[in-house]
Amino acid sequence: MPKSTRSNKGYNGNSNLPLPDEIVQLTKAELTEYVKCADDVNYFINNYVKIVHVDHGIVPFKMWPFQETIIDVFNNNRFTICKMARQSGKSTVVVCGYFLWYILFHTDVSVGILANKESTAIELLRRLKQSFEFLPGFLKQGIVKWDQKLIMFANNSRVRAESTSASAIRGDTFNILFLDEFAHVPDNIAGEFMTSVFPAISSGKTTKLFIISTPKGYNLFYKIWNDAVEGRNTYKTVGFTWRDVPGRDDAWADETRKNIGEQQFEQEFNCSFQGSANTLIPAYKLAQMSFKSPMEDRGSLKIYVPPVRANETDPSHVYVMTVDTSQGQDQDFAVASIFDISITPFRQVAVFRRNDITPQLLAPVLKQIGQHYCDAFILVEINDVGLIVADSLRMELEYDNLIFIKSDPKRGQMLGGGFHPKARLGLRMTQATKRIGCAQVRTMVEKDQLLIFDYQTIRELTTFVAKGAKYQAEEGAHDDCVMTLVLLGWLTAQHGFENYVGLSMRKLLMNESEPVSLDEPFVGFFDTTDHSLDWDWDPSSPNVVDDPDFWRE
Description:
By secondary structure, the protein is of the alpha/beta class. It folds into 2 domains: 28-240, Rossmann fold (3-Layer(aba) Sandwich), CATH 3.40.50.300; 296-305 and 315-509, Nucleotidyltransferase, domain 5 (2-Layer Sandwich). Helices cover 33% and strands 19% of the residues. The strands form 5 sheets. Strands 5-6-7-4-8-9-3-10 form an 8-stranded mixed β-sheet, with helices on both faces. Strands 11, 12, 13, 14, 15, 16 and 20 form a 7-stranded mixed β-sheet that branches. A 3-stranded antiparallel β-sheet has the order 18-17-19.
């Protein structure tokens, strides 16, 4: 509790900033108010916190009902994620209200304010400092430190402001971490930050993490929010839109829509998760997609649905693996998506994704995954280093169920058997094949004939946009997972594809559904040998490279 009567000197000559050794003599009324404020954060904010209003200058901070809800949720939960409309006072109520109360009336506590930009974090701390100066003297603590990025009180409580990065607060400890506008932090930085910081927060019994943001696409903020909604994590969700802000009505909304556009309004003020404009998959369909948590997460390999092998009454399911290769130099990713094509709608059952595996080491991994999924058919994109992977699978590892492509002078690349004189392993991605694959994927998704479970694949679809006459990833984004969908799209558009599973995707997409049958003959090289492996490496096999890190990030 504050002590003794204050001098007019103050910290650095500012009379609004008491020195740590000053003594305050409280009246009985002041002591009563001090106790009320210490016991009730809402009472403290509504009666003593002041802020600077853009139109009215210094005004008392009277919380709106939804802001009181935010304070209540923050105060009673360890992990909270808040989805809020722009200009709704979301950061002000937390920083100038809750955090100011927290460090004034708790000793030896530490709060970290992190934003997508360092300047934003500094501005938030400046507002807290400003609200502190407006407080009556009997509620203030003496100032030990009053810097641009760090303040410390005489009760040994402090607040630090930094940008959201993996290294910004490494080595420091906090009772509360506040991540402001987390959806606007670049994906790679956000992921590194959560990986490095979250274990330290979660290891404590009372430490808290507050995430608050306006949505911005399908990124890590979206994933944490969606996981919380689906019960896959323990975050408490709080969400408010423009309708919860007093003074905003339909007339205001109509005017704002006209000024910024419908899509921007939906994201900024209705808090809808929106992908980029002109995406391959329409925005309404992207919004309906919901990723799943893997049943098994082996780092680079995520398994969403295990393979269905033959039993006494049913044959094995049929799987296709499509592969987009890379050079393994920590840049683009090598991705293999596995799809169950023996049932409709087709579904993505597993994804392998890694950016540091060479083509020579990728092939044995694909063989292992393919054998695990009932000797899946494999279609490899052979641009660049893909041909190395395909040749290694065929010649060195003797994997039989590889999909061959033949060339026709008029029709271009077509699905073909391995005995055709012009057949070759894999598909060379050209403008024509990509156009066919993109069109087919869009139609399959729109007509609910393809289920996508992988978060990274859905994330890439939100930034896979039209650039002129073709689709590609936005600058700074990846499309390696999407390209495996494009390969599947091209494959299902081929006339010979129906021989693999006994159905025609073209007929399904024209709403002429047929029952699935596995009685028709297969084309290609289907090995009927039972490969019921136990999903572990067999070091004695000549086709397995002795590298235990294949499955790890």
